[in-house]
Design goal:
Helix content is 43%, strand content 10%. The radius of gyration is 24 Å and the shape is elongated. The protein has a two-stranded antiparallel sheet with strand order 1-2. The N and C termini lie far apart (56 Å). The longest helix has 17 residues. It has 6 helices and 2 strands; from the N terminus they run ααααααββ. By secondary structure, the protein is mainly α.
């Protein structure tokens, strides 16, 4: 195959799939899928949950970080992490992934389990 040119028939194959009709906006609900607009953000550890679960001073300091971009006060980090973990476990979470972008060209992930295996019940 010669390089530099399109693959023979490629555009014909693309043209064959392009005229697919756009499904109606309520097609997902009719097919039994969840209403995305109704559930989007419904499981978010946001300000309301933070204020409800964190000590007043920890919430205030965290909001300073969020709103002013100040450094996170490390003295509140454990209480924030614990509140978030409890909130997630109440919703059935057993694992979490912390995805972040370090100051390199790469991304990184951290996967952690909330499960603690025991000799009598290794699956729990």
């Amino acid at each position: 195959m010669a390089s530099g040119g399109p693959t023979p028939g490629r555009f014909d194959r693309l043209a064959a799939v392009r005229p697919r009709p756009t499904p109606p906006l309520d097609a997902g609900a009719a097919a039994g899928f969840a209403d995305v607009e109704a559930i989007f953000g419904s499981h978010t550890f946001g300000r309301v949950e933070m204020e409800r679960r964190l000590p007043t001073d920890a919430f205030r300091r965290l909001m300073e970080t969020v709103e002013a971009g100040s450094e996170l006060d490390l003295s509140i980090a454990d209480s924030v992490a614990e509140a978030m973990k409890e909130w997630a476990e109440e919703r059935g979470a057993t694992h979490y992934t912390h995805w972040f972008q370090p100051l390199t060209v790469l991304t990184a992930e951290k996967h952690v389990s909330f499960l603690t295996p025991t000799p009598s019940n290794p699956g729990q």
